[in-house]
Amino acid sequence: MCVSSPELKVFEMIGAMGNKNTEKALEIYRNMILYNESPFGILAMITRHFRLMYQSSELIDMGENFASAAAKLGVRDFAVRDYCRQAKNFSKEIIL
Question: Does the CA dihedral 45-47-50-56 come out positive or negative?
Fold first, then answer.
């Protein structure tokens, strides 16, 4: 049995949003609510995720490599890579 963390679910939900798959994003949200995740907690995780997507893509655009950007943000380098990949699905205005 595999237990999924709320952060992973938020990552999946934002991925669905970026792919314009509203039904999938809502399904993930509903399931998180069903499993007693706080709506405010979910909002906080979404906010953090978009902040890290923006900061990661900005650092990479300024010439940082994944490892140095990760160190500045306090996350792993693979996370910066994933945030940058997801950020490409959104305009800078949406991310902000």
Answer: negative
Q: 33: which DSSP letter?
A: H
Instruction: Give the number of other CB atoms < 10 A from CB of residue 66.
Output: 18
Using CA atoms, how far apart are residues 96 and 93, in angstroms rounded to an integer? 5
Query: 92 is written with which tokens?
Result: 């800078």
Distance CA 10, CA 5 (A): 9
Strand, helix or coil at 64?
coil
Per-residue pLDDT of the chain (96 residues; tens, 9 = 90+): 455 788 889 989 998 988 889 999 999 999 999 999 999 999 998 999 899 999 999 999 999 999 999 999 999 999 999 999 999 988 888 887
Tracing tokens 């499993």 back to the chain, one arrives at 35
Paired tokens of 77: 């380098």
Under 8 Å CB-to-CB from 75, ≥6 apart: which residues?
52, 83
